[in-house]
Design brief:
The complex is a heterodimer of chains A (about 250) and B (about 400).
Chain A: E1 2-6, H1 9-27, E2 37-38, H2 51-58, H3 80-93, E3 99-103, E4 124-127, H4 130-136, E5 150-153, H5 156-160, E6 165-169, H6 175-182, E7 201-206, H7 215-223, H8 225-228, H9 238-241
Parallel strand pairs in A: 1-7, 2-3, 3-6, 6-7
Antiparallel strand pairs in A: 4-5
Chain B: E1 12-22, E2 25-27, E3 31-34, E4 37-38, H1 41-46, E5 54-65, E6 67-72, E7 74-75, E8 78-79, H2 87-97, E9 103-110, H3 115-121, E10 136-137, E11 140-143, H4 167-175, E12 181-186, H5 193-202, E13 206-209, H6 216-224, E14 229-230, E15 263-266, H7 275-284, E16 289-291, E17 304-308, E18 311-316, E19 319-322, H8 335-346, H9 350-356, H10 359-364, E20 382-385, E21 391-396, E22 399-403
Parallel strand pairs in B: 1-5, 6-9, 9-10, 9-11, 11-12, 12-13, 13-14, 14-15, 15-16
Antiparallel strand pairs in B: 1-2, 1-3, 3-4, 5-20, 7-8, 17-18, 18-19, 20-21, 21-22
Helix pairs in contact in B: 8-9
The chains are: A alpha/beta (about 250), B alpha/beta (about 400).
């Protein structure tokens, strides 16, 4: 695991963005060669705060992505389980997820894999924990009865299949979850801990999120920042990459 | 990028690198247009899996809804109150020329005239969409002849009339037809005006109060019967008095029926109203302010003598007076000049200035679902402006109908 500790939310966001940019450039996508980015699922369609609106406003409208290359789980599908299975097939067809980017909940869940979710689960319909429902109430004018109680989500196993996983954790309210995720054992009550068994994980967090960690842990990883920051240095543009494709640019691996 | 649209094959244009006026704010967003209307790009992306056919870089311009002028008496030598043989080509000329001022829709205005003029001219005015040929015509604005003698301003006294005999029938007989009439200005203190106001409002015609010596309660009564507009506030009405604010008092009246708003026209050319008065009105009732030009035939031409219906006016710089007097008669300001002057004089935000010339007139006429905004599914009538609010390009139904010469005019 690489634990990247930045001072605050904006710096953490910027570091993560540069890292993703570098990974995409290194990968050298092109026609027929897709960089598959995985993101966790969210609220049902047709809600102004729906995941579709969120993704459109915060991501898709700023980049030139072809709509055919966007796959979002459809909560309105007639057969939800078939929708989930089809989603798993689409991931396989795209060559697997290259990089999965997600956050964690205060209860340590990744995507909607609530405490108690199987660590080898696949994309499925999941009932939501009360904590999650309360957290989502703000999107429904505080009316708890309006908040959906089920969601479609990628499974822990699905994310573990990704070639690389990046988890973003900011804020003091996530600090305990981060502690459980990286300093305690692998436990299905804190599903993010599953990534201790993934070969390529990056945790990006801000100072506040480290409040429950051992001072020793924090000092160790802060000391590595000099090396880790090399990962976000500007790379050559894709055009210039040309002959150097295939060569590893990583100065070190963990 | 290949487009794959399931709803329509019409080309989709994406205006990028711009700031658009939406939800009362300038937002850094792209503007999408298809088939003459503003398109919702999110629906296009997810529902149709479509994308833009053409992307235009707006070089950081401001994109605002096209201006709507609800009081314009003519321009470029054309006088809408003169029944000439080539009236139609006159109105076409004006509608084309005002595109460069950012006006995409307007109400050709007729000042007080004898019935023969109305009978000849009104049938030649038709509501029509704008385009490369010129700004759209929303309908005529009839300012007079049912106005007060004491506040006639530049209107000819011998043509003033009352409707105390036959109320609405008198009005109809005078005008001949109300087919393409959008606004009527009258003085509410005249006998039987309330009946007339009700009849006009029933027909969807906006009633405006102006050229009047009405006191506040007469004005309030008129509003209760359906009047929604005030013609060039402060001009041709009793001045504000602290014990009887007159028509000006409507701006803060508490007798306006619930759910309704009184709008008021302002000619912000720096002459008709002192900037301090403009500020007082704006601060008292910012959401009701509608910028109008009240432009006359001499607008766009060199200084000198021109007509305004039955009168002769003299133009000297920005001042226009009835020949030989100091009575103001219309203006030669252009709409974009008025927007800039309004913004400077009140120190208001760019968004407020732009809305006073687009959103508010659309709300006045009850057409804001298709004009006056850049909301999805609205008509794609918009302008590209620079930061100093000079119009760089005018678009109607998504097509460019005017562009500023690069050589700089």
């Amino acid at each position: 695991m690489k634990l990247i500790i930045l001072e605050n939310y904006s710096q953490a966001s910027e570091w993560a963005a540069k890292y993703i940019r570098n990974r995409i450039v290194q990968f050298g996508p092109g026609p027929g060669r897709f960089f598959t980015l995985g993101l966790p699922t969210g609220l049902p369609r047709d809600h102004p705060e729906s995941y579709h609106s969120f993704m459109w406003n915060n991501f898709f409208k700023h980049i030139d992505i072809s709509p055919e290359n966007v796959h979002i789980l459809d909560g309105n599908a007639p057969d939800l389980q078939a929708e989930c299975n089809a989603f798993e097939e689409k991931i396989k067809a795209a060559g697997g997820i290259e990089l999965f980017v997600g956050g964690i909940g205060p209860d340590g869940h990744i995507a909607f894999n609530e405490p108690g979710s199987s660590l080898v689960s696949r994309t499925r319909v999941k009932t939501l924990a009360m904590d999650t429902i309360l957290a989502n109430a703000r999107f429904f004018d505080g009316d708890l009865s309006k908040v959906p109680t089920m969601a479609l989500t990628v499974g822990v196993g699905t994310v573990m299949d990704a070639r690389e996983v990046m988890i973003l954790i900011t804020g003091a309210h996530k600090a305990f979850a981060l502690y459980k995720a990286i300093e305690d054992g692998v436990n299905h009550m804190w599903t993010v801990s599953a990534f201790q068994q993934h070969p390529n994980t990056v945790f990006v967090c801000d100072e506040d999120a480290t409040l429950e960690l051992k001072v020793k842990t924090v000092k160790y990883f802060k000391g590595l920042m000099l090396v880790h920051n090399k990962l976000v240095e500007p790379l050559y543009s894709m055009k210039e990459m040309g002959a150097e494709r295939g060569q590893s640019k990583k100065p070190y691996s963990d | 990028m290949p487009s794959n649209k399931s709803v329509s094959d019409a080309p989709i244009v994406q205006f990028t690198n711009c700031r658009i006026l939406r939800d009362h704010q300038l937002q850094r967003e792209d503007l999408w247009v298809r088939e003459g209307k503003i398109l919702n790009p999110e629906k296009l992306f997810f529902d149709e899996k479509g994308s833009a056919d053409v992307q235009l870089n707006c070089k950081d311009s401001i994109i605002a809804p096209g201006f709507i002028d609800v009081q314009i008496n003519g321009g470029f030598g054309v006088d809408f109150s003169l029944a000439t043989d080539d009236f139609k080509s006159g109105i076409d000329l004006v509608s084309r020329k005002i595109l460069s001022h950012g006006v995409t829709s307007f109400c050709p205005t007729l000042v007080t005239s004898p019935p023969s003029v109305y009978h000849q001219v009104l049938p030649q005015i038709s509501v029509r969409n704008g385009g490369a040929h010129g700004a759209g015509i929303l309908g005529a604005h009839l300012e007079g002849p049912f106005i007060s003698k004491e506040k006639k301003g530049a209107h000819p006294e011998h043509c003033l009339r009352t409707f105390e005999a036959g109320a609405f029938q008198d009005l109809l007989a005078t005008y001949g037809s109300l087919n393409c009439v959008q606004i009527v200005t009258l003085a509410p203190e005249m006998r039987r005006s309330n009946e007339v106001i009700r009849e006009l409002t029933k027909r969807g015609i906006c009633v405006s109060l102006g050229h009047s010596v009405a006191n506040l309660s007469q004005a309030e009564e008129a509003v209760q019967h359906g009047a929604t507009f005030i013609t060039h506030l402060f001009n041709a009405m009793l001045p504000f008095h602290h014990r009887d604010p007159g028509i000006v008092g409507l701006l803060t009246s508490d007798k306006i029926p619930a759910g309704r708003r009184v709008f008021y026209g302002m000619i912000s050319d720096g002459i008709h109203t002192n900037p301090a008065a403009l500020r007082i009105a704006h601060r008292a009732h910012p959401k009701g302010l509608v910028l109008v030009t009240d432009a006359i035939a001499g607008m766009g031409l060199a200084p000198g003598r021109h007509t305004l219906g039955q009168q002769v006016v003299e133009i000297d710089g920005l001042n226009t007076y009835i020949a030989g007097t100091k009575t103001l008669s219309g203006s030669v300001a252009t709409m974009d000049t008025c927007v800039r002057h309004f913004q400077e004089a009140t120190g208001c935000s760019v968004e407020t200035a732009l809305e006073a010339a687009s959103l508010h007139p659309a709300q006045l006429l009850g057409i804001e679902h298709k004009k006056g905004t850049l909301n999805y599914d609205s008509d794609a009538d918009f302008l590209m402006l620079n930061d100093s609010l000079y119009v760089q390009a005018t678009y109607i139904a998504g097509e460019e109908v005017w562009r500023q010469d690069v050589s700089g005019m």
